[in-house]
Amino acid sequence: MTEAFLWSGGRVFTGRRYVEAVLVEDGRVLFAGGHDEARRLAPTGAERPLLAGRLVIPGLVDAHVHVAELTRVREGFDLAAIRSLAELKDRLAAWAAGHPTGPIVGRGWDPERWGDHRWPSVRDVDPIVADRPVVLHHASGHAALLNTLALEASGALGRGAVADPAMIGRFPDGSPNGLLFEEAIRRAGSVVSDRSGPPAEALGRTLRALTSYGLTSVGAMSASPEEVRALRSLDEAGRLPLTVRAFVRLAELSEYAARDLAAGPGRFAVLGAKGYLDGAFGPRTASLRAPYADDPATSGLRVGDDRTLEDRIAECTARGLVPALHAIGDAAVARAAGMLRPSGGRTGPAGRIEHASLTPPELLGLLQEVRPTLVVQPGFVWSDHWLRGRLGPERARSAYAFRTLTDRGLRLAGSSDAPYDPVDPWRGLAAAVGRRDGLGRSANPDPREALSPEEALGLYTANAATSLGLGGHGRLEPGAPADLVVLGPPDLARAVAAVESPVQETWVGGRRVYVRPGPREE
Ligand SMILES: [Zn+2]
Protein backbone atom coordinates (compact mmCIF):
# COMPACT_ATOMS: atom_id res chain seq x y z
CA MET A 1 0.00 0.00 0.00
CA THR A 2 1.34 3.39 -0.85
CA GLU A 3 1.71 5.97 1.84
CA ALA A 4 1.36 9.55 0.62
CA PHE A 5 1.41 12.99 2.19
CA LEU A 6 0.53 16.31 0.59
CA TRP A 7 1.70 19.42 2.45
CA SER A 8 0.09 22.65 1.35
CA GLY A 9 -1.47 25.77 2.78
CA GLY A 10 1.86 27.37 3.60
CA ARG A 11 5.19 27.66 1.84
CA VAL A 12 7.80 25.10 0.82
CA PHE A 13 11.47 25.95 0.25
CA THR A 14 12.89 23.18 -1.91
CA GLY A 15 16.49 24.28 -1.42
CA ARG A 16 16.41 26.18 -4.70
CA ARG A 17 13.04 27.97 -4.80
CA TYR A 18 9.84 28.64 -2.91
CA VAL A 19 6.75 26.67 -4.00
CA GLU A 20 3.21 26.10 -2.71
CA ALA A 21 3.15 22.39 -2.02
CA VAL A 22 5.16 19.20 -1.73
CA LEU A 23 3.83 15.70 -2.37
CA VAL A 24 5.55 12.68 -0.82
CA GLU A 25 4.91 9.06 -1.75
CA ASP A 26 6.52 6.00 -0.17
CA GLY A 27 9.24 7.99 1.52
CA ARG A 28 10.29 10.03 -1.52
CA VAL A 29 9.39 13.40 -2.93
CA LEU A 30 7.08 12.92 -5.91
CA PHE A 31 6.41 16.55 -6.70
CA ALA A 32 7.16 20.05 -5.44
CA GLY A 33 5.39 22.99 -7.03
CA GLY A 34 1.95 24.52 -7.45
CA HIS A 35 -0.89 23.54 -5.14
CA ASP A 36 -3.33 22.56 -7.92
CA GLU A 37 -0.96 20.24 -9.70
CA ALA A 38 0.10 18.63 -6.40
CA ARG A 39 -3.57 17.92 -5.62
CA ARG A 40 -4.11 16.45 -9.07
CA LEU A 41 -1.11 14.12 -8.65
CA ALA A 42 -1.95 13.04 -5.09
CA PRO A 43 -3.28 9.46 -4.91
CA THR A 44 -6.66 8.94 -3.30
CA GLY A 45 -6.28 8.46 0.42
CA ALA A 46 -3.20 10.67 0.64
CA GLU A 47 -2.93 12.37 4.01
CA ARG A 48 -3.09 16.14 3.76
CA PRO A 49 -1.31 17.71 6.72
CA LEU A 50 -2.14 21.42 6.64
CA LEU A 51 0.73 23.85 6.89
CA ALA A 52 -1.54 26.67 8.08
CA GLY A 53 0.96 29.30 7.03
CA ARG A 54 4.02 27.38 8.20
CA LEU A 55 7.19 26.70 6.19
CA VAL A 56 8.63 23.35 5.04
CA ILE A 57 12.36 23.10 4.33
CA PRO A 58 14.68 20.18 3.47
CA GLY A 59 15.94 18.19 6.46
CA LEU A 60 19.12 19.61 7.99
CA VAL A 61 22.46 17.84 7.75
CA ASP A 62 25.36 18.21 10.19
CA ALA A 63 28.50 17.13 8.36
CA HIS A 64 30.70 16.80 11.47
CA VAL A 65 29.49 15.62 14.89
CA HIS A 66 31.29 13.45 17.44
CA VAL A 67 28.35 11.23 18.35
CA ALA A 68 30.02 9.12 21.06
CA GLU A 69 31.68 12.13 22.64
CA LEU A 70 28.43 14.10 22.50
CA THR A 71 26.75 11.18 24.26
CA ARG A 72 29.41 11.22 26.99
CA VAL A 73 28.83 14.94 27.47
CA ARG A 74 25.04 14.60 27.49
CA GLU A 75 25.11 11.74 29.96
CA GLY A 76 28.32 12.42 31.92
CA PHE A 77 30.26 15.07 33.89
CA ASP A 78 29.57 18.24 31.87
CA LEU A 79 31.73 21.27 32.69
CA ALA A 80 30.52 23.60 29.93
CA ALA A 81 28.53 25.84 32.28
CA ILE A 82 31.52 26.51 34.58
CA ARG A 83 32.31 30.24 34.91
CA SER A 84 35.38 30.24 37.21
CA LEU A 85 38.20 28.05 38.41
CA ALA A 86 36.64 28.03 41.89
CA GLU A 87 33.42 26.67 40.39
CA LEU A 88 35.37 23.98 38.52
CA LYS A 89 36.90 22.84 41.82
CA ASP A 90 33.50 22.87 43.59
CA ARG A 91 31.89 20.84 40.82
CA LEU A 92 34.76 18.31 40.84
CA ALA A 93 34.47 17.88 44.62
CA ALA A 94 30.70 17.39 44.34
CA TRP A 95 30.99 14.92 41.45
CA ALA A 96 33.68 12.93 43.30
CA ALA A 97 31.44 12.73 46.39
CA GLY A 98 28.49 11.55 44.30
CA HIS A 99 30.58 9.02 42.31
CA PRO A 100 32.86 7.53 44.97
CA THR A 101 34.64 4.91 42.81
CA GLY A 102 36.31 4.69 39.43
CA PRO A 103 38.10 7.23 37.27
CA ILE A 104 36.57 10.68 36.82
CA VAL A 105 36.23 12.04 33.29
CA GLY A 106 34.78 15.51 32.72
CA ARG A 107 34.37 17.61 29.60
CA GLY A 108 33.82 21.17 28.48
CA TRP A 109 35.78 23.59 30.72
CA ASP A 110 37.03 26.74 28.99
CA PRO A 111 38.97 29.57 30.71
CA GLU A 112 37.81 31.96 27.96
CA ARG A 113 34.46 31.93 29.77
CA TRP A 114 36.08 32.80 33.12
CA GLY A 115 36.81 36.27 34.46
CA ASP A 116 40.60 35.96 34.70
CA HIS A 117 41.15 33.42 31.85
CA ARG A 118 43.60 31.59 34.13
CA TRP A 119 44.18 27.97 33.10
CA PRO A 120 43.88 25.34 35.83
CA SER A 121 46.75 23.04 36.78
CA VAL A 122 47.43 19.77 38.57
CA ARG A 123 47.74 21.83 41.78
CA ASP A 124 44.04 22.67 41.54
CA VAL A 125 42.97 19.04 41.09
CA ASP A 126 45.27 16.97 43.34
CA PRO A 127 43.98 18.45 46.63
CA ILE A 128 40.43 17.41 45.61
CA VAL A 129 41.00 13.92 44.15
CA ALA A 130 44.38 12.19 44.47
CA ASP A 131 43.48 8.50 44.92
CA ARG A 132 41.98 7.76 41.47
CA PRO A 133 42.54 9.15 37.97
CA VAL A 134 40.96 12.46 36.97
CA VAL A 135 40.90 13.58 33.32
CA LEU A 136 39.08 16.83 32.53
CA HIS A 137 38.86 17.66 28.82
CA HIS A 138 39.00 21.27 27.60
CA ALA A 139 35.94 22.42 25.61
CA SER A 140 37.93 22.19 22.34
CA GLY A 141 38.95 18.57 22.91
CA HIS A 142 42.53 19.64 22.16
CA ALA A 143 43.72 19.95 25.77
CA ALA A 144 43.09 17.97 28.95
CA LEU A 145 43.83 18.51 32.64
CA LEU A 146 44.96 15.45 34.63
CA ASN A 147 45.68 14.85 38.29
CA THR A 148 49.10 13.45 39.19
CA LEU A 149 47.86 9.86 39.39
CA ALA A 150 46.39 10.00 35.87
CA LEU A 151 49.42 11.85 34.52
CA GLU A 152 51.79 9.16 35.80
CA ALA A 153 49.57 6.28 34.72
CA SER A 154 49.23 7.75 31.20
CA GLY A 155 52.93 7.24 30.46
CA ALA A 156 52.93 10.56 28.61
CA LEU A 157 55.90 11.75 30.69
CA GLY A 158 58.14 8.85 29.66
CA ARG A 159 61.09 9.62 27.39
CA GLY A 160 59.97 9.84 23.77
CA ALA A 161 56.37 9.00 24.69
CA VAL A 162 55.08 11.91 22.62
CA ALA A 163 56.53 13.31 19.43
CA ASP A 164 56.61 16.96 20.50
CA PRO A 165 57.60 18.08 24.03
CA ALA A 166 55.19 21.04 23.65
CA MET A 167 52.32 18.54 23.97
CA ILE A 168 53.05 18.33 27.72
CA GLY A 169 52.31 21.46 29.74
CA ARG A 170 54.91 22.51 32.29
CA PHE A 171 55.32 24.98 35.15
CA PRO A 172 58.13 27.57 34.79
CA ASP A 173 60.37 25.24 36.88
CA GLY A 174 59.96 22.49 34.26
CA SER A 175 57.74 20.14 36.24
CA PRO A 176 54.53 18.92 34.51
CA ASN A 177 51.52 21.14 35.21
CA GLY A 178 48.92 18.48 34.45
CA LEU A 179 47.93 19.76 31.00
CA LEU A 180 48.26 17.52 27.95
CA PHE A 181 47.70 18.60 24.36
CA GLU A 182 46.86 16.84 21.08
CA GLU A 183 48.41 13.35 20.68
CA ALA A 184 49.39 13.25 24.35
CA ILE A 185 45.69 13.33 25.31
CA ARG A 186 45.16 9.91 23.75
CA ARG A 187 47.43 8.48 26.43
CA ALA A 188 45.10 9.95 29.06
CA GLY A 189 42.27 8.10 27.35
CA SER A 190 43.96 4.77 27.99
CA VAL A 191 44.03 5.49 31.74
CA VAL A 192 40.27 5.83 31.94
CA SER A 193 39.55 3.23 29.21
CA ASP A 194 37.62 5.78 27.20
CA ARG A 195 37.79 3.53 24.15
CA SER A 196 34.96 1.27 25.22
CA GLY A 197 32.49 3.98 24.27
CA PRO A 198 28.87 4.51 25.21
CA PRO A 199 26.46 1.60 24.58
CA ALA A 200 24.24 1.58 21.48
CA GLU A 201 21.23 2.52 23.61
CA ALA A 202 22.89 5.77 24.67
CA LEU A 203 24.02 6.61 21.11
CA GLY A 204 20.41 6.07 20.01
CA ARG A 205 19.18 8.55 22.64
CA THR A 206 21.63 11.17 21.35
CA LEU A 207 20.61 10.64 17.72
CA ARG A 208 16.92 10.93 18.63
CA ALA A 209 17.68 14.21 20.41
CA LEU A 210 19.33 15.50 17.21
CA THR A 211 16.08 15.12 15.26
CA SER A 212 14.51 17.75 17.55
CA TYR A 213 16.73 20.35 15.85
CA GLY A 214 15.50 19.32 12.40
CA LEU A 215 18.56 17.17 11.68
CA THR A 216 17.90 14.24 9.34
CA SER A 217 21.50 13.18 8.53
CA VAL A 218 24.82 13.47 10.37
CA GLY A 219 28.49 12.74 9.81
CA ALA A 220 29.78 10.77 12.83
CA MET A 221 33.43 11.82 13.05
CA SER A 222 36.42 9.98 14.53
CA ALA A 223 34.28 6.92 15.20
CA SER A 224 36.02 4.12 17.13
CA PRO A 225 35.53 0.48 16.05
CA GLU A 226 33.13 0.13 19.01
CA GLU A 227 31.08 3.12 17.85
CA VAL A 228 30.92 1.75 14.30
CA ARG A 229 29.66 -1.59 15.65
CA ALA A 230 27.09 0.10 17.89
CA LEU A 231 25.77 2.31 15.08
CA ARG A 232 25.49 -0.67 12.74
CA SER A 233 23.65 -2.68 15.39
CA LEU A 234 21.14 0.18 15.80
CA ASP A 235 20.69 0.23 12.02
CA GLU A 236 20.17 -3.55 11.87
CA ALA A 237 17.50 -3.23 14.54
CA GLY A 238 15.78 -0.50 12.51
CA ARG A 239 16.44 1.97 15.32
CA LEU A 240 18.47 4.69 13.62
CA PRO A 241 16.18 7.75 13.57
CA LEU A 242 18.29 9.51 10.93
CA THR A 243 20.95 8.80 8.31
CA VAL A 244 24.49 8.37 9.69
CA ARG A 245 27.72 8.42 7.69
CA ALA A 246 30.75 7.56 9.85
CA PHE A 247 34.36 8.61 9.45
CA VAL A 248 36.70 6.24 11.30
CA ARG A 249 40.07 7.39 12.65
CA LEU A 250 42.71 7.49 9.91
CA ALA A 251 45.36 6.17 12.31
CA GLU A 252 43.17 3.09 13.03
CA LEU A 253 42.12 2.39 9.44
CA SER A 254 44.46 -0.57 9.00
CA GLU A 255 42.76 -2.31 11.98
CA TYR A 256 39.54 -2.66 9.98
CA ALA A 257 38.80 -5.66 7.78
CA ALA A 258 36.62 -4.97 4.74
CA ARG A 259 33.56 -6.47 6.46
CA ASP A 260 34.00 -4.09 9.44
CA LEU A 261 33.50 -1.21 7.02
CA ALA A 262 30.46 -2.66 5.23
CA ALA A 263 27.31 -0.57 5.10
CA GLY A 264 24.34 -1.41 7.33
CA PRO A 265 21.02 -2.51 5.81
CA GLY A 266 19.33 0.87 6.24
CA ARG A 267 20.63 4.26 7.22
CA PHE A 268 24.23 3.55 8.25
CA ALA A 269 27.49 3.38 6.30
CA VAL A 270 31.17 4.12 6.88
CA LEU A 271 32.13 6.87 4.43
CA GLY A 272 35.67 7.94 5.24
CA ALA A 273 38.57 8.29 7.63
CA LYS A 274 39.71 11.37 9.51
CA GLY A 275 43.23 12.45 10.50
CA TYR A 276 44.64 15.45 12.36
CA LEU A 277 47.11 18.08 11.11
CA ASP A 278 46.87 20.56 14.01
CA GLY A 279 44.94 21.55 17.14
CA ALA A 280 42.60 24.46 17.90
CA PHE A 281 42.73 28.23 18.47
CA GLY A 282 41.63 28.05 22.15
CA PRO A 283 44.77 26.25 23.45
CA ARG A 284 46.91 27.99 20.73
CA THR A 285 47.63 24.64 19.07
CA ALA A 286 46.13 25.50 15.65
CA SER A 287 49.12 25.57 13.29
CA LEU A 288 49.79 29.11 11.96
CA ARG A 289 52.21 30.38 9.33
CA ALA A 290 53.21 33.23 11.68
CA PRO A 291 53.24 33.32 15.52
CA TYR A 292 50.16 33.99 17.63
CA ALA A 293 49.53 37.72 18.21
CA ASP A 294 48.96 37.14 21.93
CA ASP A 295 51.85 34.69 22.39
CA PRO A 296 54.66 35.30 19.89
CA ALA A 297 56.60 32.35 21.39
CA THR A 298 54.36 29.88 19.53
CA SER A 299 52.87 29.28 16.08
CA GLY A 300 50.87 26.28 17.28
CA LEU A 301 51.47 22.57 16.81
CA ARG A 302 52.13 20.71 13.63
CA VAL A 303 50.43 17.35 14.27
CA GLY A 304 51.37 14.16 12.44
CA ASP A 305 54.22 13.28 10.14
CA ASP A 306 53.65 14.05 6.44
CA ARG A 307 54.99 10.76 5.12
CA THR A 308 52.83 8.65 7.47
CA LEU A 309 49.76 10.76 6.76
CA GLU A 310 50.26 10.53 3.01
CA ASP A 311 50.57 6.74 3.21
CA ARG A 312 47.37 6.55 5.24
CA ILE A 313 45.49 8.85 2.84
CA ALA A 314 46.60 6.60 -0.03
CA GLU A 315 45.29 3.55 1.89
CA CYS A 316 42.05 5.41 2.60
CA THR A 317 41.35 6.26 -1.04
CA ALA A 318 42.47 2.79 -2.19
CA ARG A 319 39.75 1.35 0.08
CA GLY A 320 37.17 3.64 -1.52
CA LEU A 321 36.91 5.89 1.54
CA VAL A 322 36.90 9.69 1.68
CA PRO A 323 39.92 11.25 3.43
CA ALA A 324 39.03 14.03 5.90
CA LEU A 325 41.83 16.14 7.38
CA HIS A 326 41.42 18.29 10.49
CA ALA A 327 43.12 21.64 9.74
CA ILE A 328 42.26 24.89 11.54
CA GLY A 329 45.29 27.22 11.25
CA ASP A 330 46.42 28.54 7.86
CA ALA A 331 49.64 26.46 7.91
CA ALA A 332 47.60 23.30 8.50
CA VAL A 333 45.02 24.19 5.82
CA ALA A 334 47.82 24.65 3.27
CA ARG A 335 49.34 21.32 4.33
CA ALA A 336 45.96 19.57 4.08
CA ALA A 337 45.27 20.94 0.60
CA GLY A 338 48.72 19.77 -0.52
CA MET A 339 48.03 16.25 0.78
CA LEU A 340 44.60 16.05 -0.87
CA ARG A 341 45.94 17.16 -4.25
CA PRO A 342 45.44 14.22 -6.63
CA SER A 343 48.92 13.03 -7.50
CA GLY A 344 50.73 10.20 -9.22
CA GLY A 345 47.59 8.99 -10.96
CA ARG A 346 45.96 8.40 -7.56
CA THR A 347 42.24 8.73 -7.95
CA GLY A 348 39.46 8.32 -5.45
CA PRO A 349 36.70 10.19 -3.69
CA ALA A 350 37.21 13.94 -3.25
CA GLY A 351 38.65 14.82 0.14
CA ARG A 352 37.37 17.05 2.90
CA ILE A 353 39.20 19.59 5.05
CA GLU A 354 37.57 19.72 8.49
CA HIS A 355 37.23 23.29 9.86
CA ALA A 356 39.49 25.19 7.36
CA SER A 357 39.05 28.08 9.79
CA LEU A 358 41.81 30.44 8.65
CA THR A 359 42.06 30.95 4.89
CA PRO A 360 44.07 34.08 4.00
CA PRO A 361 43.97 35.33 0.37
CA GLU A 362 47.30 33.62 -0.48
CA LEU A 363 45.73 30.20 0.19
CA LEU A 364 42.66 30.62 -2.00
CA GLY A 365 44.39 29.73 -5.28
CA LEU A 366 45.60 26.42 -3.85
CA LEU A 367 42.14 25.60 -2.46
CA GLN A 368 40.54 26.41 -5.83
CA GLU A 369 43.02 24.13 -7.55
CA VAL A 370 42.53 21.15 -5.19
CA ARG A 371 38.79 21.80 -4.54
CA PRO A 372 38.34 19.90 -1.27
CA THR A 373 35.00 20.27 0.51
CA LEU A 374 35.53 22.69 3.40
CA VAL A 375 33.57 21.39 6.39
CA VAL A 376 33.05 24.60 8.37
CA GLN A 377 31.39 25.40 11.72
CA PRO A 378 29.54 28.73 11.47
CA GLY A 379 28.84 28.53 15.23
CA PHE A 380 32.58 29.13 15.82
CA VAL A 381 32.07 32.72 14.56
CA TRP A 382 30.27 33.32 17.86
CA SER A 383 32.12 30.88 20.10
CA ASP A 384 35.60 32.13 19.11
CA HIS A 385 34.67 35.76 19.79
CA TRP A 386 38.11 36.26 21.38
CA LEU A 387 39.89 35.25 18.13
CA ARG A 388 40.98 38.76 17.11
CA GLY A 389 43.13 38.83 20.25
CA ARG A 390 44.76 35.50 19.32
CA LEU A 391 45.41 36.31 15.67
CA GLY A 392 45.47 40.12 15.52
CA PRO A 393 42.62 41.99 13.79
CA GLU A 394 44.21 41.88 10.32
CA ARG A 395 44.64 38.09 10.22
CA ALA A 396 41.25 37.45 11.87
CA ARG A 397 39.58 38.96 8.79
CA SER A 398 40.44 35.72 7.00
CA ALA A 399 38.82 33.54 9.67
CA TYR A 400 35.43 31.98 8.89
CA ALA A 401 35.37 33.96 5.63
CA PHE A 402 32.32 32.17 4.27
CA ARG A 403 31.38 34.77 1.62
CA THR A 404 34.93 34.96 0.26
CA LEU A 405 35.17 31.15 0.04
CA THR A 406 31.70 30.77 -1.51
CA ASP A 407 32.43 33.44 -4.12
CA ARG A 408 35.56 31.51 -5.11
CA GLY A 409 33.35 28.55 -5.98
CA LEU A 410 34.47 26.46 -3.01
CA ARG A 411 31.91 24.10 -1.47
CA LEU A 412 31.26 24.77 2.23
CA ALA A 413 29.47 22.09 4.24
CA GLY A 414 27.80 23.17 7.49
CA SER A 415 28.45 21.40 10.78
CA SER A 416 28.64 21.87 14.54
CA ASP A 417 31.68 19.85 15.70
CA ALA A 418 29.52 19.00 18.75
CA PRO A 419 30.20 18.50 21.59
CA TYR A 420 33.06 20.97 21.11
CA ASP A 421 30.44 23.57 20.15
CA PRO A 422 26.65 23.46 20.63
CA VAL A 423 24.98 20.95 18.32
CA ASP A 424 22.03 23.27 17.48
CA PRO A 425 22.25 24.00 13.72
CA TRP A 426 19.98 27.04 14.16
CA ARG A 427 22.73 28.70 16.17
CA GLY A 428 25.16 28.06 13.29
CA LEU A 429 22.66 29.37 10.74
CA ALA A 430 22.15 32.55 12.78
CA ALA A 431 25.93 33.05 13.10
CA ALA A 432 26.45 32.56 9.34
CA VAL A 433 23.75 35.12 8.58
CA GLY A 434 24.26 37.68 11.37
CA ARG A 435 27.98 37.22 12.23
CA ARG A 436 27.54 38.82 15.71
CA ASP A 437 26.06 37.05 18.74
CA GLY A 438 23.42 38.50 21.07
CA LEU A 439 26.12 40.50 22.86
CA GLY A 440 27.56 41.87 19.61
CA ARG A 441 30.63 39.63 19.75
CA SER A 442 32.24 37.84 16.79
CA ALA A 443 35.49 36.15 15.78
CA ASN A 444 35.23 38.10 12.53
CA PRO A 445 32.28 40.53 12.45
CA ASP A 446 32.92 41.70 8.87
CA PRO A 447 29.37 41.96 7.43
CA ARG A 448 30.79 41.26 3.96
CA GLU A 449 31.35 37.65 5.05
CA ALA A 450 27.64 37.18 5.92
CA LEU A 451 25.49 34.71 3.96
CA SER A 452 21.80 35.06 3.14
CA PRO A 453 19.45 32.73 5.07
CA GLU A 454 18.96 30.59 1.94
CA GLU A 455 22.72 30.35 1.31
CA ALA A 456 23.37 29.46 4.94
CA LEU A 457 20.68 26.79 4.76
CA GLY A 458 22.42 25.41 1.65
CA LEU A 459 25.52 24.75 3.80
CA TYR A 460 23.41 22.68 6.22
CA THR A 461 21.39 20.83 3.55
CA ALA A 462 22.60 20.06 0.01
CA ASN A 463 26.26 20.93 0.63
CA ALA A 464 26.56 18.98 3.87
CA ALA A 465 24.68 16.07 2.27
CA THR A 466 27.11 16.00 -0.65
CA SER A 467 30.05 16.01 1.78
CA LEU A 468 28.53 12.85 3.30
CA GLY A 469 28.13 11.16 -0.07
CA LEU A 470 24.35 11.69 0.09
CA GLY A 471 24.02 13.32 -3.30
CA GLY A 472 20.23 13.07 -3.59
CA HIS A 473 19.58 14.45 -0.10
CA GLY A 474 19.21 18.06 0.98
CA ARG A 475 16.68 19.27 -1.60
CA LEU A 476 12.93 18.68 -1.86
CA GLU A 477 12.98 17.66 -5.51
CA PRO A 478 11.37 14.68 -7.25
CA GLY A 479 13.15 11.45 -6.33
CA ALA A 480 14.82 12.84 -3.21
CA PRO A 481 14.20 11.11 0.12
CA ALA A 482 11.39 12.84 2.00
CA ASP A 483 13.62 14.29 4.71
CA LEU A 484 11.92 17.52 5.71
CA VAL A 485 11.31 19.92 8.55
CA VAL A 486 8.17 21.89 9.36
CA LEU A 487 9.00 25.31 10.84
CA GLY A 488 6.70 27.55 12.85
CA PRO A 489 7.77 30.90 11.35
CA PRO A 490 6.49 31.50 7.79
CA ASP A 491 9.86 32.49 6.31
CA LEU A 492 13.46 31.46 6.67
CA ALA A 493 14.83 34.84 7.82
CA ARG A 494 12.42 34.83 10.76
CA ALA A 495 13.15 31.18 11.54
CA VAL A 496 16.90 31.90 11.66
CA ALA A 497 16.40 34.98 13.85
CA ALA A 498 14.00 33.20 16.23
CA VAL A 499 15.17 32.93 19.83
CA GLU A 500 13.34 29.65 20.39
CA SER A 501 13.83 26.66 18.10
CA PRO A 502 11.61 27.11 15.04
CA VAL A 503 11.39 23.33 14.48
CA GLN A 504 7.89 21.88 14.91
CA GLU A 505 8.22 18.55 13.10
CA THR A 506 11.04 16.49 11.59
CA TRP A 507 10.44 13.77 8.98
CA VAL A 508 13.00 11.23 7.77
CA GLY A 509 12.25 9.11 4.70
CA GLY A 510 8.57 10.06 4.82
CA ARG A 511 8.16 9.14 8.50
CA ARG A 512 7.71 11.64 11.30
CA VAL A 513 10.55 11.20 13.80
CA TYR A 514 10.00 14.32 15.92
CA VAL A 515 7.06 16.50 16.82
CA ARG A 516 7.43 19.38 19.21
CA PRO A 517 5.51 18.73 22.42
CA GLY A 518 2.44 20.95 22.63
CA PRO A 519 1.87 23.39 25.47
CA ARG A 520 1.12 21.40 28.62
CA GLU A 521 -2.57 21.30 29.46
CA GLU A 522 -3.86 21.97 32.94
ZN1 LIG B 1 35.69 17.54 15.32
Q: Would you mind describing this structure in some detail?
A:
It is a single chain. The longest helix has 15 residues, at 453-467. The model has no long low-confidence stretch (mean pLDDT 92). Helix 7 (200-211) crosses helix 8. The protein has 522 residues and is an alpha/beta fold. It has an 8-stranded parallel sheet. It has a 6-stranded mixed sheet with strand order 3-2-6-21-22-23, with no helix packed on it. A 6-stranded mixed sheet has the order 8-9-10-11-13-12, sandwiched between helices. It has 18 helices and 23 strands. Bound molecules: zinc ion. Zinc ion is lined by residues 64, 66, 221, 417.
